[in-house]
Amino acid sequence: MIDNKELLEQFRQFIWQNKTANAIELSIETVDWNGSEPRLTYQVVKMLPHDANEQQIEAAMQDLCANSNYFAICAICKKPELAGRMYDEYLCQSCAKSQ
Ligand SMILES: [Zn+2]
Q: What's the gap in Å between 58 CA and the centre of ligand 1?
């Protein structure tokens, strides 16, 4: 559980809103490690009714930001990062390399 407000704000940059005819989709960037090169893809992680209001969308966004399955914070540089891009549970790639 992540409860630092400033960091939660920063996670928003990784969340994409897409309105379709039937729903509002919230997607996050994920990294697909299958294959030779890691590939950036988008995964729909939350569907809201197409007529969801601002508060409902906001609540869903905050919910996602607090989900450590999707986002992480590096223990050393304190940078917000996608969980899928982390070196491990605690370190981002660049900090892991400089260790
Ligand atoms: Zn780091």
A: 28
